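Fold description:
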Amino acid sequence: MSGGSGGEKSEKATPKRRKKARHDGQIGNTPELGAWLGMLAASFVIPHVAKSLMDTSTRGVVMIGSVIRAPDAGRAMAIASDAFHDGFMNALPMALLAAAVGVASVAGQGALWFAPGLLKPKFKRLNPLSGIKRMFGKHGAWTLVKSLLKTAALAVVVYASIRNLVPTLLGSGSLPLSELVSICIDSVMTMLRWAAVAGLLMALADFVVVRKRNDKQLKMTMQEVKDEFKSSEGDPHVRGQRRAAQMAMRRNRMMADVPTADVVVVNPTHVAVALRYDPQKGAPRVVAKGGDHVAARIRAVAEEHRVPMVADIPLARALHAACAVGEEIPPDLYRAVATVIAFIMTLRRRGSTAGVHTVRTLAPTG
């Protein structure tokens, strides 16, 4: 892969590039899939709709005869209204099925997307040179192949259907008219179904070709990928959101460690530092710290979990300034912190450590 010069489009489109393409209506789908699916579905529904419409028409003709024998304008209007309503209700399922199939086929291709970019006029579409290039390019060649394949497939289906139907018609002298009409309808529906199946196969092939062509058009150069990355990283809003999310995650983890602390040294209101001491792991370690509202949250969590708090302004300030979360305390604070921990251990032996306590510690040096 070259791409080093930034001139060859060798990189796959980024999610941002694909989102922009979808916004502009460059999705890479084929409308033929929905058309052939609709025809296939209609071939199973049309016979039932036609039978319902025929029954409705028959009832209407019978009722019209009675009106002719005894003319009544009001009754005639009622018959016409009922006939229109019944016809509409009979045809409604087929219309809903066609709409549902169309939406499902578009959604199945990942193209159910509102693209306002398609509403904007693009004068380059009127450029005759672009039209000629499409006509004699790969797109035009594939369109020609599709047309020839569809024509050939439809010709084969029609020929096979007629070849099977002609002998039946020639020997139908003794058949009732209703049965003959039923045979013709069944033959036509079978022909439509096979034509729809052939069309679906070609539509699937067209979908693969169109999707590959769309992916190729969306490819990016290495320089475009780098520029997009720099643009995303350089966006202050994006950086601010990322930093805020990271700080929130760190703060949540820190608050989850407060209940494990042995003592919380407080200011008593502006600063709070939670310490945990494990003799086998060295010096006491800071598990949480913060000022103002963060300090208030640390104190609230400590109070909820009955973690003892010691009010010592100099020590709290020194720990807050000298230690990061997860670090051991510096050596110059060992004596002061040891005094606090010894005091807490004494309280534990007495049985009560919850609440805020005051202990006289050695002033921290440095």
User: Anything to note?
Assistant: Confidence is low (pLDDT under 50) at residues 1-6. The radius of gyration is 40 Å. Strands lie at 9-11, 220-221, 263-266, 271-276, 285-291, 309-311, 356-357. The longest helix spans residues 177-218.
